[in-house]
Write a structure and sequence with these properties.
This protein is an all-alpha fold and 563 residues long. The protein is 65% helix and 2% strand. A two-stranded antiparallel sheet has the order 1-2. Strands 3-4 form a two-stranded antiparallel ribbon. A hairpin with a 2-residue loop joins strand 3 and strand 4 (408-409). Helix 10 runs antiparallel to helix 12 (357-368) and helix 12 runs antiparallel to helix 18 (526-560). The longest helix is centred in the C-terminal third of the chain and has 35 residues, at 526-560. The model has no long low-confidence stretch (mean pLDDT 93).
Amino acid sequence: MGFNSADLIQIILTLGVVAVATPILGSYMARVFQGEKTWLSSLLRPLESGTYRLTGVRENDEMDWKEYFLSLMFFNLIGIVVVMLLQMLQAALPLNPQGLPNTSWHLAFNTAASFVTNTNWQAYSGESTLSYLTQMLGLCVQNFVSAATGFAVFLAFTRGIARKQVTGLGNFWVDLTRSTVHVLLPFSLVLALFLVGEGVVQNFSAYVPAKTIEGAEQLLPQGPAASQIAIKQLGSNGGGFFGLNSAHPYENPTPWSNFLEMISLILLASACTYVFGAMVGSKRQGWVLFAAMMSMMVVMLSLSLWSEYTPNATIGQTALMEGKETRFGVTNSVLWSVLTTSASNGSVNAMHSSLSPLSGGIAMVNMMLGEVIFGGVGAGMYGMLLFVILTVFISGLMVGRTPEYLGKKIEAKEIIWVVVGVLAPCVTILIFSAVAVAHPMGLAGLGHQGPHGLSEVLYAFTSAAANNGSAFGSLTVNTPFYNVLIGTAMLIGRFAIILPVLVIAGSLAGKKTSPTGLGTFRTDSILFVVILIAVIFIVGSLTFFPALSLGPILEHLLMMRGQ
């Protein structure tokens, strides 16, 4: 089985649709976030304004970065408490036709941290662990509001860059509401209807008993899956309604549903680049960031496909189907793995543990780079903007000028917080992985030994700290040790970046804008794209190359020697 023209056409079509949709969706989203009228305003504006009246939010009030951060943290803390309670009390609550028991406290904590941080890491199998009420009121709601929180922080950061000599960054409650009502709800509704049309289940039925061809008894899980799958893809969430995620035929039944779900992985995150350009008054700036993100993704996809289709000296053939969904094939599995780890989504349609060593390693690297290759909705953009500021600073030092970005001088305070935001998840990944491989409880969860075993642990904490949520699928993690450690990593990976982002936004918003001169380093050129990509890969390689050398790289070399 080799790579063929049909595979190439599908890849071009997938990326082409995303590129074409970026300015269309981005233009709509920019109007929404700037409070302008859109073609959906007459339908959705009453819901938005009604939400403000119900909650007592004053739409025109502005917040400084401290108020914005405290409001965000309060909202997310409430979310963690609610999701934990739903899981730990679900046996006594309605919409539980299978009579599923309450979850343990450590699984409840892990799941709550996961969905509130837009990570959607799952240490459980949905159909055998969570009731319909918990799935809908807990997880599905967080799929919306955690994605909207990412949008909100991105919008505050963008305003901090665009505005001058002010303290206000917008209003968290308004940004949260507009993102949910005008973007996530309508798009998810449309996608959910398409998915139901393709055969994705959406009901409240009890599980259906059936017999296999061999005569074995089997329970066919049911539930309101399509509604959650739509937002999990569009909102860069990724948590599967069923344990097999999008490899399950009830979540992803046809090639058409597979195509729609893959596009949805990065659709809104890609549109954020256009939103940024529109809000800072230079669409070219947005296209530069889109070009950097798309270029990195194409390179990583090419390397992953090359690795997967390279003859395996151990097995004696290429493009192995083990661990991959036979309905979709090798290319769809690899394409999905690159898209989901580039977009901070985490959904899977194949077992990443079964990818070739380098393909699995590339999925890890996509996350280790900071989830800035499109990344999560909003979150990918504010992560990328941290690297943009770092690149501008380094470039300024090289030419002996005070670094500026869009007319704002970048000074010591901003760089200190940039470093905090960039390194916090890196430090978390390495330290927590070291703890796991040094502790008996961490080693007890391994599905494999040797370099692949290290990759399992490294992948788990990379996915957690990068707020991705995908997994190798061969590490046993539903234990107090892993649930607490991974849950903590997810919280650090989310909020240890949001705090620096908002501090920097507040600092930049208070500055004057310097006029562009002959010595100004342009940030809307191909040269800047190249330097930006170089800085991202240098930071990632210097931080993680030693760990990767002991994991996927060593496994690849051993495999090529036939071991």
